[in-house]
């Protein structure tokens, strides 16, 4: 008597549905086990980034295990070829959506961590570009998901991509100035010739940088006016960062009598150099006093040095005090011009 072959399970009977349920549950159990191992590894790390990414990836990974288990269970169920193709297509679409969800969650987590890290390092300008980067990743992910779903639905995406390419070129041309300012601001932030709070000169504009935004850089001038410079202009301009200097330069040209005796003039230059070296805000090694020669019938002596302070408010009184002392030294030796007095 021939053995009777048991009929295969189908989705229309209880055993078939039970097989799908068991396969899905097994996929979730395996995904949980893998997540448990990953969590233990992340908990032993001192880097909080690892634990943050594990938390953001947990829900998508559990759903991934569920879908993979359901797909594996279809191997032991008798399904019509047309229905099987439809089921596999639906599972592929679900997997694409699941991966996109995971990418979006990871992008949001990375954005929050990057913003916190940049703010902690005092780089608030760089933190401004983090939301922009996250939005770009989101839109790219959504675009790829839409194209994948359309491709699964049988739509020829080649022509669609060609049309989107032409439309993208048109949009890029229309937003050329905006994109130029955006990339200009990105280059300023990455190259860091300036930071908020720096005293600077950008072209003909001089002031203190208040903010480096996505479109423009705002500079507060000495007249307390606020000037907004497009980032494209800032990126291409000659920038002088006054806050990055290591000292302020002292320079004074002293007029003397054209008939000053050489010995008296030489002794006077040594005295002037000693007075400058005695000033605590000047670097002694940078002090230089030299006779420049005659200019319009007047003998000129140039005194130069570099200060140890970069604060103009601190250096201004010292510069005035030193200048008066130098003029008095010339007057005491009788080398000053008749109409020159302190």
Q: Determine the strand fraction and express it as a percent band.
A: 5-15%
Helical fraction equals 55-70%
Number of helices: 9
Radius of gyration: 38 Å
Order of helices and strands: HHHHHHEEEEHEEHEEH
- Specify the biggest β-sheet: 5 strands, antiparallel
Average pLDDT across residues?
Answer: 76
> What general outline do the C-alpha atoms trace?
elongated
Structural class: alpha+beta
Report the count of strand segments: 8
Q: Tell me the number of structural domains.
A: 3
Strand order in the sheet with the most strands: 4-3-2-1-5
Low-confidence runs (pLDDT<50, min 5 residues)?
1-7
Distance between the termini: 132 Å
Question: SSE layout and pairings?
Answer:
Layout: H1 14-43, H2 48-73, H3 81-120, H4 124-152, H5 157-174, H6 176-191, E1 199-202, E2 205-212, E3 216-221, E4 226-230, H7 231-236, E5 239-241, E6 249-256, H8 262-277, E7 288-295, E8 298-306, H9 312-332
Task: Record keyword descriptors for this entry.
alpha+beta, 9 helices, Alpha-Beta Plaits, 342 residues, SH3 type barrels, 3 domains
Summarize this, please?
By secondary structure, this protein is of the alpha+beta class. 59% of the residues lie in helices and 15% in strands.
Walkthrough of the structure:
- With 342 residues, the protein is of the alpha+beta class.
- The chain folds into three domains: 14-154; 183-243, Roll (SH3 type barrels), CATH 2.30.30; 249-332, Alpha-Beta Plaits.
- Helices cover 59% and strands 15% of the residues.
- It contains nine helices and eight strands.
- The strands form two sheets. Strands 4-3-2-1-5 form a five-stranded antiparallel sheet.
- A hairpin with a 3-residue loop joins strand 2 and strand 3.
- Helix 1 packs antiparallel against helix 2 (48-73).
- The N and C termini lie far apart (132 Å).
């Amino acid at each position: 008597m021939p053995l009777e072959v048991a009929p295969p399970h189908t989705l229309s009977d209880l055993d078939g549905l039970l097989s799908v349920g068991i396969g899905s549950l097994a996929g979730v159990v395996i995904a949980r086990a893998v997540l448990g191992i990953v969590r233990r590894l992340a908990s032993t790390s001192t880097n909080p980034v690892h634990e943050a990414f594990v938390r953001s990836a947990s829900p998508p990974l559990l759903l991934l295990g569920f879908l993979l288990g359901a797909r594996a269970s279809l191997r032991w169920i008798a399904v019509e070829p047309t229905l099987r193709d439809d089921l596999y297509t639906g599972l592929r679409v679900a997997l694409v959506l699941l991966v996109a969800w995971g990418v979006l969650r990871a992008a949001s987590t990375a954005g929050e961590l990057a913003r916190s890290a940049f703010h902690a390092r005092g780089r608030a300008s760089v933190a401004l570009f983090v939301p922009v980067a996250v939005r770009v990743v989101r839109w790219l992910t959504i675009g790829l998901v839409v194209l994948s779903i359309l491709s699964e639905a049988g739509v020829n995406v080649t022509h669609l991509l060609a049309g989107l390419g032409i439309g993208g070129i048109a949009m890029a041309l229309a937003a050329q100035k905006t994109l130029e300012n955006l990339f200009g601001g990105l280059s300023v932030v990455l190259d860091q010739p300036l930071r908020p709070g720096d005293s600077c000169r950008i072209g003909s504009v001089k002031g203190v940088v208040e903010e480096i935004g996505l479109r423009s850089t705002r500079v507060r001038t000495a007249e307390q006016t606020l000037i907004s410079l497009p980032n494209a202009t800032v990126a291409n301009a000659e920038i002088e960062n006054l806050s990055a200097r290591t000292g302020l330069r002292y320079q004074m040209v002293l007029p003397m009598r054209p008939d000053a005796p050489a010995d008296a003039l030489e002794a006077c230059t040594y005295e002037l150099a000693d007075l400058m070296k005695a000033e605590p805000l000047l670097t002694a090694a940078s002090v230089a006093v030299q006779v420049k020669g005659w200019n319009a019938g007047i003998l000129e002596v140039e005194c130069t040095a570099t200060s140890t302070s970069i604060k103009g408010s601190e250096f201004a009184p010292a510069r005035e005090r030193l200048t008066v002392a130098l003029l008095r030294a010339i007057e005491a030796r009788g080398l000053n011009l008749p109409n020159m007095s302190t």
